[in-house]
């Protein structure tokens, strides 16, 4: 179906969204900005939001992916946390893996003079 | 719909029990049989071969004698073909499969055979059930299928009798009917009825064996396959079952188009007439379209303690709760928290006082919303340009190329669309379009919040708009829809508030760490590529009075050294000064012929001097750090470092050259003394081969930008 | 969809009331977010401001704006 493919949101004129605030409108505001995305499986992405759709399918550019792995040490029973990082130039993120999406405090850096 | 939708008996003849499953057209066939039964041909009866009839009781469940011997139009009939022909002498074209196959073993598998296999398999089964009665010589076993029969025929090599002429079923019937007009039918009819009743019961019992063999889902599946055939244009040719059946039954036989056509005729005419088929097709199509439409309806809703909860499907994704469409605007308990983030369209930003949106993040969000709003306006305006070709006349479109032709365009359109389109028909449309365009432009302009150029809130709304990267990127497209006055207002507001621009903040970095952060340099690049060109276009057409006004504003409202330390700020200064210088040169060259008045020239000179004084003692600081510092080598491989960026300080040399051109001799002296060290450093580095070839040339070229403006050349320095 | 006019209190009414207030959002995974409810939609997608992330009762993170995808939401509750 058409709505399963992410559309370039800026190119799709929204229907009077500026009068009604929807959570996805806030995502729209972050187009072309850096965002952080928490995914299932202890994965976290940081990248520039190029496009998204109502499922929160996203296209991210210049992405850094952090994968956190927590294991119990077989003998000491202590939690061993390992993180792996990789970079991807362009990434399509399927929306159903998304848990949380955020902009870190002070990331904008353009509001203070 | 019945299990066997087409009336095909899908049981192979060899599998068929003596009492095969009934199907749609069996009555039809029965009627024929009845007709035959009622009309025994005495001659034929007398000549029946009664041998091997011992098992008739078992086969038919009634006295063998009762079974009408006139059923024998199978094998043994061959020997009496001549009599039949005599009774119905008639040329014939079509052949009934069964009769034909018995009569002419090999030819039985000509084109009509598949038809017979399907259409008359009921008859086939009956006949086969009786075949033990009437086996011709050479058949020692009861054969349970046509194929086996034909094999035997082939094996025996010489069938008992091959009729020279072949009869169709109709002809046989007619012959039988004619010959039996006078027979005593009543007794026969009773017997036949009894026999048919028994037969039916057997059939039912037989069918019961298969009860529950298929699940509901299986049946649905088969049904779907069958129904799907009805949606094709040629259901027979596309019928998988038919094709497979024919192939399986007749390996090696080419499926001629003829066979299919005949089958189609057969079923279309007998089993289901054309109208019925058509109705059925319509019905199916309606079902299909209904099924398609159905999921679009509202999902199941349950009203309960938790309110309306809806179930979701694939097409109807889960909407867990029903939230009022406009939570912001609903009055009532939530009114206190309702936020009007868009109320600042009038230009007065009141949102800062709004309780729940205070703080930098809320401010930034509001800015982002404005950018999105501007985006929407521009997208709509651009869409209008693309889709509605005759762009209507527009009072504000002086800066648009097609503006001059606009008024004529709608009229031409009218004449082209023909007489039915009255001349008034198109005009309101275009005026509506024009007003829509105008309102969009106004909205876009309001969103930029350019006016007033001096704002109570800091930073200025326009600067906030431009603080976002995508806001900067939007400016070239925005300028398409600004009137010249608006464009000038834009430049004025930008110049008046330039020190608040994010691109100026990078100058901090020069003093501290020496390099710009990547975001800073990115934003600077975006500014230089997106915002500056439209500004240059405006300033490039401006008269000196405007340049003076801009310079006045710049000097009055900004910390100029601060601005000048950034690449973007220095670029802006260069643009303003060079335009002023150019106009000054023009007025000197073509004195009297220009609009530039002497007072304006004087004013410009005064402003230039003011600017020079402000920048004095800062000239050497304009250079980005580490530019020529060969003493502190940095790893060449690392990107962001200024050292390796090619020609990274060109803009400074350009600015210095521009200043040098307009400077008085005293000012030139000051300038040279301030940057002398830098110049010498560059020249020395170039001549010391510290830089590679092209880099060396670049360094000299940069220095020469300034030196040429002063009437000097780097070679003079080298020679010393 | 929902008729707000009915005197009966519905989740919608509740959600309208808590808009702009401090809320606690618990996810299916057990992680809790506290913040100011900026807005939400019928899919329970939630936008929070001044968000704090708690795992096992410990503060793990602070975000400015956060968007929570609705399918992960266990509940929303008002605080104070």
Automatic annotation (TrEMBL), chain A:
Keywords tagged on the record: mRNA processing, mRNA splicing, Nucleus, Ribonucleoprotein, RNA-binding, Spliceosome
Source superkingdom: Eukaryota
Gene Ontology terms, MF aspect: RNA binding
Signal peptide extent: none
Biological processes, Gene Ontology terms: mRNA splicing, via spliceosome
Subcellular location, record wording: Nucleus
Matching InterPro entries: Lsm3 (IPR034105), LSM_dom_sf (IPR010920), Sm (IPR047575), Sm-like_LSM3 (IPR040002), Sm_dom_euk/arc (IPR001163)
GO cellular component labels: Lsm2-8 complex; spliceosomal complex; U4/U6 x U5 tri-snRNP complex; U6 snRNP
Domain Sm: 22-107
Classification via Pfam families: LSM
PANTHER family according to UniProt: U6 SNRNA-ASSOCIATED SM-LIKE PROTEIN LSM3
Family statement: Belongs to the snRNP Sm proteins family.
Function text: Binds specifically to the 3'-terminal U-tract of U6 snRNA.
Quaternary data: LSm subunits form a heteromer with a doughnut shape.
Protein name: LSM complex subunit LSM3
From TrEMBL, chain B:
PANTHER family named in the record: PROTEIN ASSOCIATED WITH TOPO II RELATED-1, ISOFORM A, TOPOISOMERASE II-ASSOCIATED PROTEIN PAT1
Protein name: DNA topoisomerase 2-associated protein pat1
mRNA decay factor PAT1 domain: residues covered: 186-714
GO biological process: deadenylation-dependent decapping of nuclear-transcribed mRNA; P-body assembly
Region (Disordered): 1-28, 321-365, 389-438
GO CC term, one of those recorded: nucleus
Family membership: Belongs to the PAT1 family.
Lineage of origin: Eukaryota, Fungi, Fungi incertae sedis, Zoopagomycota, Kickxellomycotina
Automatic annotation (TrEMBL), chain C:
MF terms in GO: RNA binding
Residues covered by the Sm domain: 10-80
A biological process from GO: maturation of SSU-rRNA
Classification via SMART domains: Sm (SM00651)
PROSITE patterns assigned to the protein according to its UniProt record, in alphabetical order: SM
Keyword Ribonucleoprotein belongs to the record: yes
Protein name listed in UniProt: U4/U6-U5 snRNP complex subunit lsm6
Species whose genome carries this gene: Dispira parvispora
């Amino acid at each position: 179906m058409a709505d399963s493919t992410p559309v370039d949101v800026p190119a799709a004129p929204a229907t009077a969204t500026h009068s009604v605030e929807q959570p996805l409108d806030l995502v729209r505001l972050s187009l072309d900005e850096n965002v952080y995305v928490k995914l299932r499986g202890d994965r976290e992405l940081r990248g520039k939001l190029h496009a998204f759709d109502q499922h929160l399918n996203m296209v991210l550019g210049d992405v850094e992916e952090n994968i956190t792995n927590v294991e119990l040490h077989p003998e000491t029973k202590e939690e061993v946390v390992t993180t792996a990082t990789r970079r991807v130039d362009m990434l399509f993120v399927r929306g159903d893996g998304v848990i949380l999406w955020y902009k870190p405090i002070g990331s904008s850096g353009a509001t203070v003079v | 719909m019945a299990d066997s939708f087409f009336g095909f008996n899908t049981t192979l003849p060899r599998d068929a029990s003596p009492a095969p499953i009934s199907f749609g057209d069996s009555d039809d066939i029965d009627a024929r049989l009845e007709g035959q039964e009622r009309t025994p041909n005495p001659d034929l009866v007398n000549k029946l071969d009664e041998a091997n009839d011992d098992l008739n009781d078992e086969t038919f469940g009634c006295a063998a004698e009762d079974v009408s011997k006139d059923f024998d139009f199978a094998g043994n009939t061959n020997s009496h073909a001549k009599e039949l022909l005599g009774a119905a002498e008639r040329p014939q074209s079509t052949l009934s499969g069964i009769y034909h196959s018995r009569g002419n073993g090999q030819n039985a598998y000509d084109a009509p055979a598949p038809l017979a296999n399907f259409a008359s398999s009921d008859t086939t089964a009956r006949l086969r059930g009786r075949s033990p009665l009437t086996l011709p010589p050479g058949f020692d076993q009861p054969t349970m299928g046509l194929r086996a029969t034909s094999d035997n025929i082939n094996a025996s090599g010489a069938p008992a009798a091959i009729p020279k002429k072949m009869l169709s079923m109709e002809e046989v019937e007619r012959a039988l009917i004619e010959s039996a007009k006078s027979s005593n039918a009543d007794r026969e009819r009773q017997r036949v009825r009894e026999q048919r009743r028994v037969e039916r019961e057997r059939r039912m019992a037989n069918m019961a064996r298969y009860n529950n063999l298929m699940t509901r889902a299986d049946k649905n599946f088969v049904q779907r396959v069958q129904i799907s055939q009805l949606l094709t244009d040629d259901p027979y040719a596309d019928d998988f079952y038919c094709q497979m059946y024919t192939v399986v039954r007749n390996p090696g036989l080419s499926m001629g188009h003829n066979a299919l056509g005949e089958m189609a005729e057969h079923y279309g005419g007998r089993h289901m007439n054309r109208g019925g088929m058509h109705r059925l097709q319509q019905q199916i199509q309606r079902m299909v379209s209904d099924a398609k439409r159905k999921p679009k309806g509202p999902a199941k809703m349950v009203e309960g303690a938790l309110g309306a909860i809806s179930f979701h499907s694939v097409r109807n994704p889960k909407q867990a709760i029903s939230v009022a469409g406009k939570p912001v605007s609903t009055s009532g308990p939530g009114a206190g928290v309702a936020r009007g983030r868009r109320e600042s369209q009038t230009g007065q930003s009141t949102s800062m006082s709004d309780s729940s949106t205070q703080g930098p993040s809320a401010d930034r969000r509001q800015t982002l919303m404005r950018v999105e709003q501007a985006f929407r306006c521009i997208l709509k305006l651009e869409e209008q340009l693309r889709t509605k070709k005759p762009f209507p006349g527009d009072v504000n479109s002086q800066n648009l190329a097609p503006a001059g032709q606009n008024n004529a365009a709608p009229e031409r359109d009218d004449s082209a669309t023909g007489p039915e389109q009255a001349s008034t028909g198109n005009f309101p449309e275009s005026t509506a379009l024009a007003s829509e365009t105008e309102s969009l432009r106004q909205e876009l302009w309001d969103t930029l919040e350019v006016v007033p150029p001096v704002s109570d809130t800091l930073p200025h709304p326009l600067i906030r708009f431009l603080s976002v990267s995508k806001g900067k990127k939007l400016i070239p497209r925005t300028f398409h829809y600004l009137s010249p006055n608006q464009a000038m207002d834009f430049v004025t507001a930008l110049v008046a508030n330039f020190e608040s621009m994010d691109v100026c903040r990078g100058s901090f970095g020069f003093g501290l760490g020496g390099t710009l952060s990547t975001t800073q340099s990115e934003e600077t690049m975006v500014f230089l590529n997106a915002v500056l060109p439209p500004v240059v276009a405006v300033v490039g057409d401006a008269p000196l009075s405007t340049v003076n006004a801009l310079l006045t504003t710049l000097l009055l409202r900004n910390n100029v050294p601060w601005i000048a330390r950034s690449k973007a700020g220095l670029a802006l200064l260069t643009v303003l000064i060079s335009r002023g210088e150019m106009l000054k040169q023009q007025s000197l060259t073509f004195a009297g012929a220009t609009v530039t008045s002497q007072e304006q020239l004087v004013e410009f000179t005064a402003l230039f001097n003011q600017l020079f004084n402000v920048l004095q003692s800062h000239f050497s600081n304009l250079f980005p750090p580490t530019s020529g510092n060969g003493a502190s080598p940095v790893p060449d491989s690392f990107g962001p470092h200024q050292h390796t960026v090619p020609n990274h300080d060109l803009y400074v040399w350009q600015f210095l050259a521009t200043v040098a051109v307009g400077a008085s001799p005293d000012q030139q002296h000051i300038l040279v003394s301030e940057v002398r060290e830098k110049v010498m450093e560059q020249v020395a580095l170039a001549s010391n081969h510290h830089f590679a070839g092209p880099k060396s040339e670049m360094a000299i070229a940069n220095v020469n930008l300034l030196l040429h403006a002063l009437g000097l050349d780097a070679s003079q320095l080298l020679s010393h | 969809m929902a008729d707000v006019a009915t005197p009966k209190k519905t989740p919608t009414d509740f959600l309208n009331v808590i808009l702009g207030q401090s809320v606690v959002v618990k996810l299916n995974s057990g992680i809790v977010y506290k913040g100011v409810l900026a807005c939400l939609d019928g899919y329970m997608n939630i936008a929070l401001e001044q968000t704090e992330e708690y795992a096992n009762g410990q503060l793990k993170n602070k975000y400015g704006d956060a968007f929570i995808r609705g399918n992960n939401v266990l509940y929303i509750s008002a605080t104070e």
